[in-house]
Design goal:
It comes from Microbacterium terregens. By secondary structure, the protein is mainly α. It is built from three helices and no strands. α1 runs antiparallel to α2 and α1 runs antiparallel to α3.
Length: 194
């Protein structure tokens, strides 16, 4: 099949126009990629400078007081109530044991039931109870664990950053999807055949 000169000339002109359009689309896609990279970089800055501090401030204002209050309550109950009570019970039991041993030794030696000085034993019991309480408090002290890694605020900030990045990518995809002529073939160096 032969094509006359006029048609060949029109086909060449169309080929030139197609190549020109192809090159302009390559430039357009390159610019869109640059804009997407810059948007991603700006989103990262926004997340670090705006979102993370506001999430941390919100956590510090609303959640942290309740968490700290619960920890303080637990620590206070343990160190102010449980440990001293246990120490006093142990101290009292040991004081009774000492008094029973003293009474037994008095009876064995023939001195009878009379205690020489009840105040002395009361002082010994108090002293021993205080020492036992102190030792138990030191052994059972709740230590604050060292902070490691990111907290709840950091996790929320990461989730919000990922959601924002997904939103930007989705918006770019919707923009490019709407016009089929903006999509570029996989081989950018080869022009379409006319």
């Amino acid at each position: 099949m032969s094509v006359n000169r006029k048609r060949k000339k029109e086909l060449r002109r169309l080929q030139v126009q197609a190549n020109s359009l192809w090159e302009s689309q390559q430039v357009l896609v390159g610019e869109a990629a640059n804009i997407a990279r810059e948007a991603s970089r700006q989103l990262g800055h926004f997340g670090r400078e705006q979102v993370v501090p506001s999430v941390q401030a919100g956590y510090g204002k609303y959640a942290a007081p309740y968490v700290d209050k619960g920890m303080q309550f637990s620590k206070n109950v343990l160190s102010d109530k449980v440990v001293p009570t246990a120490g006093a019970v142990v101290g009292s039991a040991l004081s009774v044991w000492d008094a029973a041993n003293d009474t037994r030794s008095r009876l064995a030696s023939g001195r009878g039931f009379a205690m020489p000085d009840a105040a002395t034993y009361a002082k010994k019991a108090d002293k021993y109870g205080a020492q036992a309480s102190k030792r138990m408090a030191q052994k059972l002290r709740v230590l604050d664990p060292p902070k490691r890694g990111i907290g709840a605020g950091g996790v929320v900030a990461i989730i919000l950053g990922v959601a924002a990045a997904i939103g930007v990518v989705y918006a770019a995809w919707q923009t490019l999807r709407a016009d089929d002529e903006l999509w570029v073939a996989d081989d950018p160096l080869r022009a379409p055949d006319a």
